[in-house]
Amino acid sequence: MATFKHISSKNADYGAAEQYLTFEHDEFTMKPTLDENGRLMLREDYRIATLNCGDEDFAVACMRSNLRYGKNQKREDVKSHHYIISFDPRDAVDNGLTVDRAQALGEEFCRKQFPGHQAIVCTHPDGHNHSGNIHVHIVINSLRIEEVPFLPCPLCPFRSVPVREMALECAFQKKVEKSKMRPSARRGRAQRKCKQ
């Protein structure tokens, strides 16, 4: 069984995420580990891939998109989201999980859950305490650059919402249904929500 962790970041340096994923870091201070010549040390083993970045580096692609659409320019804007899927060390033995399989699962998860987002997916074979837990890092730009399929909104048939936002709409509908408002107030609130 895997655990899932989310970290939002306001750091405008997208290259810092890539640097963390590819170079050794002290897990307690989060500072890069340097060799005897003062250079960054590459991690011994990792798999890495980018999605929706074209031929560009993840950091460059994200910065270009942000400039093109005028997004993520303010200091308080959340620039990226970092997700970590950490597998149980027993998954390697019990379920045949390998670093390559975990990387493929991470890429598939990213395509399905974050369509249209620029992303970098990186798999590490071991945790910071050498526990043997394979884990996948997924870092996405908070800006979605590509259109995703739309589905009709269950609250208002004339309006469509993105596929991944459908769950939010349904959760809102359930919350309204459970409230103690009179029926006419529930309909009005739901219709106002759909018009936004």
List keywords for this structure.
two-stranded antiparallel ribbon; globular; single chain; alpha+beta; 6 helices; 196 residues; 5-stranded antiparallel sheet
Question: What would you call the shape?
Answer: globular
Topology pattern, helix = H, strand = E = EHEHEHHEEEEHH
Instruction: List the strand order in the largest sheet.
Output: 1-3-5-4-2
Q: Give the strand tally.
A: 7
Structural class from helices and strands?
Answer: alpha+beta
Radius of gyration over all CA atoms, rounded: 21 Å
Characterize the main sheet. 5 strands, antiparallel
Oligomer: single chain
Proportion of helical residues: 25-40%
Instruction: Return residue spans where pLDDT drops below 50 for at least 5 consecutive residues.
Output: 163-169, 174-180
What portion of the residues fall into strands of 2 or more residues?
15-25%
Q: How far apart lie the N and C ends?
A: 39 Å
Question: What's the tally of helices?
Answer: 6
Q: What is the residue-mean pLDDT, rounded to a whole number?
A: 79
Structure, explained:
The chain is an alpha+beta fold and 196 residues long. 34% of the residues lie in helices and 23% in strands. The chain contains six helices and seven strands, in the order βαβαβααββββαα. The chain has helices spanning 14-22, 58-69, 90-94, 99-113, 166-178, 183-195; strands spanning 2-9, 47-51, 80-87, 117-124, 135-144, 150-152, 160-162. Strands 1-3-5-4-2 form a five-stranded antiparallel sheet, with helices on both faces. The radius of gyration is 21 Å and the shape is globular. The two termini are 39 Å apart. The model is unreliable at 163-169 and 174-180 (pLDDT under 50).
